[in-house]
Amino acid sequence: MSALLEVNGITKRYPGVIANDNVSLTVNAGEVVALLGENGAGKSTLLKAVFGLIKPDSGEIKIGGTPIVFGDTAGVISRGVGMVHQHFQLVPVMTVAENLILGDEPKRGLFINQKSAREEIITLSKRYGLEVDPDAVIEDLPVGMQQRVEILKALRKDVKLLILDEPTAVLTPQEIDELIQVIRNLAKSGVGVVLITHKLHEVMAVADRVVVLRGGKLVGTTSPKETDEAGLAQMMVGRSVVLQVNRTEAKRGGVVLEVKGLEVRDDRKIMSVKGVDLTLHKGEILGVAGVEGNGQRELVEAICGMRHRETGNVLINGVATKDMAPHAVHEAGISHIPEDREKHGLVANYTIADNLVLNQFDQEPFAKGWIRNLGEVAKNADKLVEKFDIRTPSAFNTAGSLSGGNKQKVVVARELSEELPVLVAAQPTRGVDVGSIEFIHNQLISARDNGAGVLLVSAELDEILSLSDRIAVMSDGKIVAIVESKDADRNYIGRLMAGLKE
Amino acid sequence: MSDTKVVTESKSKPVKSFDVGSWLIPIIAVLVAMFIAAILIKLQGSNPITAYKSLFKTAFGSLEGIGLTLGKSTPLVLSGLAVAVGLRAGLFNIGAQGQLLSGALAAAWAGVTFDGLPGYIHIPIALIAGAFFGSIVAGISGFLKAYRGVHEVITTIMLNSIVMAIADYLASHQLREPDQFLTRTSEILPSAKMPIYSHLPLGFFIAVALALLIWWILGRTTSGFRIETVGRNRHAAWYAGISVKKTVISAMLISGAIAGLGGAVETLGITYRYAPAFNLGLGFDGITIALLGRVHPLGIIPGAILIGGMRAGAANMQFDSGVAPELVDLLMALILLLVTAPLITRFFKNNSNKSMTSGWGN
Ligand SMILES: Nc1ncnc2c1ncn2[C@@H]1O[C@H](COP(=O)(O)OP(=O)(O)O)[C@@H](O)[C@H]1O
Ligand SMILES: [Mg+2]
């Protein structure tokens, strides 16, 4: 019997880069293959080729022994391939049910059979243990829930091969555990799974085989039995990676940021920050741990002047900042790595150079009065591209052409280059590869060591535990506990995050 | 900006390169439009070669012809530029026509009213009056967009009708030429008439200078960067501390001022007065020209000259080949269709992973 998926010598060039360089790979039925690699290694490109979305320059892809036609996604789907894209493909104004049936709607005459659509969704979500509300509108859902809809959508057809491109980047630890269980069950029932993820412990937990790409080339195949997380990281990056962050004791100084009695509503006008008090000191990292959707996003946006504060104050160095004025808050001394880099952090069709001065374009030395100094913008770009290891052929390529991790490095580089007293970092390593995570972590630590107060908000408990000097646990819009990180106990914090008392 | 590319040897200098590929679309669009029109001319029994020869010979074959062409091109450069500035800020200003009319009437009023001034003062005053009123008309739409969230396409279209009605009313009442049968304003004073230097009209050079200025502003100034950023990603603009409201309003004010100037130049250089039948369509042609010029301030100039030349040569073409001057309108419509088709597909393609879906990464 032939393999479920056979990839033979795929090469795909983009202007200035070889995204895939003669890559070959097989996946058998019932097997979970993890595809690892740094951002920009070519993982998404390879799987897009498998799904028929792009046409490689050379090479061949067979499903069940017969070659696929590149560009014929419908044909690939009909042969039992489902894909969950890194980039969501949902229509935000439609409901969960509508999104799930989109493209293949159960019909009654000319009309969509809403009732049978809903029933189908409910059975589907029961079958895989992925609960969703079929009537919720996508844009109102947290990203984790949207991801679940994406996965259900891929599972709706009778899949033989399921491709998951970074499905866990936005999930909470519990959701990840559930997803891993789903993947195991699927594999047991004979489905082949290809999984891209940057989280090495997930790979260790679920993969039968691990394939590593670096710079578009396949550099090795291994399995969790033969190696450990450090070994995987080394294969990806081509050098040894320090997974544990090295940091010295914080030299805590005076208070730089004070949040007093803050109350904030979310987009649906529901109170989601319910009276938060925080103090952040110079030279420390204060981590805010919590399951996503417990008010962290609204808290960050309100601190940074991007969301209306119902009541309460945000003080920088003792001075109150203005509500709803991102520029004023920035000038008062807050740098902000925003959670949604595509929406807020970057202008996709600007050059990397322009993005690196996005919130300083009208300040010296990047402008003199009314006139921009493009020479300084370019110099700044060269400096930061090098210092922050942004992988691009040129600082004058558009930011949109970068891979996710490199986009994030652009944002981090811009926000850290100013050395303001307060840095608010929201999910700073989401969807970023191990090498870049290590890099960004070190940058956060060195910002702290240079005297900044860092407010780190992350859904990754491990990230919080390894970086923070103090940890604030947020649950249901409130800070339920603040602990020194040396006293922190993973289980205890996990229970608090889940809303359990002590 | 977005069209900067790098050259390998000097890494720290952004080098603007002329992106050939993206300019191929308008060139092909024009050629294909002319080809389709040629077939129609042929079907109608005339000779397309004769027609085109006559058209372009009249327009570009002599200094006189070129002067006429540039005169016709001037308001087109300005209305194209007005639409382009709006598009750069993400605003679709369909109201260039109304803004242009108000500028034309304001210049006619200023040209008649201020007596005893030398030309070098009178002309600028009349031009500024035109720009000012164009700016006010567009500013209304900008304000409604920024503070009331009303879409600019709707308000600018509505204002087109409102401005036209008011202008025609004023031209037939308060500003009407006394004791005359025709509904029109008096002829402007000689001191307000824009000079023509050996067939070449002053207005054209003003228009080109303005295009260069706008190009420089968009590419090199902080205000230009604000406009471009708001046009490309207003969420990021807001995060970066750019006031989206102020930027939307100022882009509309600039856009309207340019359109108003277009009307003023037409009054002071060509028509010498305002009459309800004048200036028709100039503002709408601006949309075609802005898109033909790839929304680039300098790209608009060749587009405007081409269309202006066709308008200049149309009458002679009819004389030489029997093809009606409406051919030019046909060509414009075809060009608009052919230029926008790829833009529209690109728009949907971009949007399929921007506003239609949400997510991150790549
Ligand atoms: N549509 C595209 N146009 C140009 N370059 C691209 C395109 N898609 C991907 N690339 C480039 O190809 C390389 C591989 O990208 P990708 O497959 O997305 O990486 P990964 O998924 O491993 O992070 C990167 O350098 C990226 O910039
Ligand atoms: Mg990817």
From TrEMBL, chain A:
Single GO term (MF): ATP hydrolysis activity
PROSITE patterns with a match to the protein in the record: ABC_TRANSPORTER_1, ABC_TRANSPORTER_2
Membrane topology: Peripheral membrane protein
UniProt xrefs under InterPro entries: AAA+_ATPase, ABC_carbohydrate_import_ATPase, ABC_transporter-like_ATP-bd, ABC_transporter-like_CS, P-loop_NTPase
Keyword set includes Metal-binding: no
GO cellular component terms attached to this protein's record: plasma membrane
SUPFAM superfamilies membership: P-loop containing nucleoside triphosphate hydrolases (SSF52540)
Gene3D superfamilies, per the entry: P-loop containing nucleotide triphosphate hydrolases
Keywords: ATP-binding, Cell membrane, Membrane, Nucleotide-binding, Repeat, Translocase, Transport
Subcellular location: Cell membrane
CDD domains linked to this entry: ABC_Carb_Monos_I, ABC_Carb_Monos_II
UniProt cross-references to Pfam families, sorted A to Z: ABC_tran
Domain ABC transporter: 5-240, 257-501
Name used for this protein in its record: Unannotated protein
Annotated source species: freshwater metagenome
TrEMBL record, chain B:
Major location category of this protein: membrane
Membrane topology designation: Multi-pass membrane protein
Compartments it resides in: Cell membrane
Entry keyword annotation includes Calcium: no
InterPro entries: ABC_transp_permease
Any one GO MF annotation of this record: transmembrane transporter activity
GO cellular component term, pick one: plasma membrane
Keywords for the protein's UniProt record, in alphabetical order: Cell membrane, Membrane, Transmembrane, Transmembrane helix
Protein name: Unannotated protein
